[in-house]
Amino acid sequence: MPNTNPSQIMPGEAQRHPAAAVAATMSASAAVIEPHDNGKLGMSHATSLLPIISTYLKPADIEKVQAAFEMARAAHEGQSRKSGEPYITHPLAVATILAQWHLDAQALIAAILHDVVEDTPTTKDDIAKRFGQAVADLVDGVSKLDKLQFATLEEAQSENFRKMLLAMARDVRVILIKLADRLHNMRTLGAVHQAKQERVARETLDIYSPIANRLGLNAVYYEFEDLGFKYLHPNRFQVLDKAVKAARGNRREVVGKISDAIKARLAEFKLKATVTGREKHLSSIYKKMQEKNISFSEVLDIYGFRILVEDMPSCYVALGALHTLYKPFPGKFKDYIAIPKNNGYQSLHTTLFGPFGTPVELQIRTPNMHKIAEAGVASHWLYKTLDAEVSNMQQKTHQWLQSLLEIQSGTGDALEFLEHIKVDLFPDAVYVFSPKGKIISLPRSATPVDFAYAIHSDVGNRTVGAKVNDEAVPLSQPLKNGDRVEIVTDKSGRPNPAWLNYAATGRARALIRHYLKTTQHAESVELGELLLIQAVRTLSFDPNEIGRTHWKRLLKGDSAKNKEEVLEEIGLGKRLAIVAARKLFDIAVLEQPEHRPKDAIIIRGTENMAVQFAQCCRPIPGDPIIAQMKGGQGLVVHTHDCPSIRSSGSFKFDPEKWVDVTWDPNIHKLFKVDIHMTVSDARGVLAKLAAEIASADSNITHIRMDAAQADETFSTLQFTIEVSHRQHLARVLRQMRQLPVVTRVSRVKSGVAKESKSEHKPNEK
């Protein structure tokens, strides 16, 4: 901590004015952090917390803050930081950062008390009784889950982040306190050992820095980035810092010349403007060197210029004026005024060819835009006159915070939750339009699936297709800036597990997983119940006799907690139905009760995730079928003559994993089947085949052509088509055989075409 500047109290005055004594101690312990001209927060000079809060808090609130300080000082009595300073200096520094943002008394009190629950006997109830439930909830939201045991450090950190982010979703002040806490810890990180420096720095760059950026706290974000760089790569930081300082003198003349030219050109256009040069942050320079694989001497644009004009129209006039001064770089213009960033940031960005070929980066904005750019969501408290401008940013922030609750509802695992959040914290956004012209901001590499879930969860769940700029596209196609996206929905549509391979937003991924888990659970329970009933009947018992006593017997000492979990495990193939049935009726494995023939389970084709149709044989209604229980997959249906099950010997050695199944006679669903064809190699043959398949009320989903053969007179094709049942397939094959170009056609099972005399037509040539 820097030297302090305590308030002066005359002898005996402390006895007459206890509050003055508290203020003096606070003044002696607190450090204020003020913004420099370049907007970066830093340790500038020491002063007191009290003068800052006196400018905007009521006297009654100041007394509460002083009472909180007294409570914290007593609680932390005798505790020291790693640097040797009294521990109370840390919560006071955190409160001072928040005071700069003009946060209310509740937030300041919570900041002063944020460590007492973790590090002292003081409880949340003690704080609630003294300062109210709102303050206690803020402290609880910031406090770590130290009393719980976790298997790994990563799991503990993830659970802490989840708790903090969900608390933030209810009250954004939680994260502001946490960011201020982390900011002071990063500034004093030099006092801890190197391993902890690296761990805390990495954690800051992974989580806290992007959160600060997402909330529009630019000054905090850039300081996190620089300090993280400093402690993760100390040698590189020192070398780069030294190089930048050396370059200041060399480039001062060029910067001055450009600044004068900008001011002169703006004056010609009668624009009142403030022009300031700004030096790029070390972390930004280092990232550019890494991304472009260049040395520091090749980084020409380490300086930029910020131009503040009176109003929004003047921003565009200034842009035009400066484009007449220096030529703009193609593709280096960004209009964040018309389309603000998610965090409310607004500005015009452009890069120009300066003198001597030096790139000149410009940011053009109004004073109000500048305040929001620096303070972000905190500008709500800091600049009361900006409420109209801040409202849009506040609304977007609120939407993002609410999305955290939605992601949480679809996520049971803390590590998974953190993964979804990280996706949203590194957006590198693209901006696309809905058919009605609404602008939707999505992460780069986002797809129509992400767009659909950004509109509404129901739209996402019912998505069956998409159009981009009025053309049908795959749901996996990445979206680009300016795309006009239209989602095609259907009542029968449902999320596909394959969407998780290309969904880019945390919201979309969480909602897809939530739907799949919920659907799989319900379907697995239903299937498990059918399998258990079948197993009970084979043991010559009546399923209706199963009561509470039977389930109590099964669950005693079992890993499952209730009946539903047992049924789900049976449906997923994680537990054998016959074993569960034996346990229900207390039958030892060695006992051989009278078996009855199994009742076949009816397959309707609508079971979705609980029942799968084997890809090796692709069974269709009309085929004799049998099903296998596979752990984690549920029931997998094969044809009786599927070569893969006969060759593996699994049926012979483990018959209890096989289930008798039969088709429902009233199935209204299309099933995929593979057919193999040898055709004459003639022009237009593919079109003829497709037309014939369509005329047979079938649909082609995939076509594959085999490698070129020695005889170029014929081609070998494999189609995946959709049919209703075996008779439908026979009709398709019959129509195909009537085509003169078709030499041979057959159904494919396990990669081998199953030929029969009825499916083979002699060459008529």
Q: For the report, how would you describe the main beta sheet?
A: 5 strands, mixed
- Average predicted local confidence, pLDDT: 77
Low-confidence stretches: 1-47, 145-151, 755-765
Radius of gyration: 35 Å
Structure commentary:
The protein is an alpha+beta fold and 765 residues long. Helices cover 47% and strands 16% of the residues. It has 30 helices and 22 strands. The strands form six sheets. Strands 3-4-7-6-5 form a five-stranded mixed beta sheet. Strand 1 and strand 2 (41-42) form a beta hairpin. Helix 9 packs antiparallel against helix 10 (153-170). It is flat and about 85 Å long. 37% of the residues are buried. Residues 1-47, 145-151 and 755-765 have low confidence and may be disordered.
Keywords:
disordered C terminus, five-stranded mixed beta sheet, 765 residues, alpha+beta, 47% helix, single chain, 22 strands
How do the strands and helices of this protein lay out in sequence?
Elements (H helix, E strand, L loop, with lengths): L12 H4 L1 H12 L4 E2 L5 E2 L6 H6 L4 H17 L13 H12 L4 H8 L3 H4 L4 H8 L1 H10 L10 H18 L2 H15 L6 H21 L3 H15 L1 H35 L4 E7 L2 H11 L10 E7 L2 H12 L10 E2 L12 E6 L5 E7 L1 H9 L3 H4 L4 H23 L4 H12 L3 E5 L5 E5 L4 H8 L1 H5 L1 E6 L2 E3 L11 E5 L16 H33 L9 H8 L7 H9 L5 H8 L16 E3 L7 E3 L11 E6 L3 E6 L3 H6 L1 H4 L4 E6 L7 E10 L4 H11 L3 E7 L8 E10 L2 H12 L4 E8 L2 E3 L11
Parallel strand pairs: 4-7, 13-17, 14-16
Antiparallel strand pairs: 1-2, 3-4, 5-6, 6-7, 8-9, 10-11, 10-12, 15-16, 15-17, 18-20, 18-21, 19-20, 21-22
Helix pairs in contact: 2-4, 4-6, 5-6, 5-11, 6-9, 6-11, 8-9, 9-10, 9-11, 10-11, 10-19, 10-20, 11-13, 12-13, 13-14, 19-23, 20-23, 21-23, 23-25, 23-26
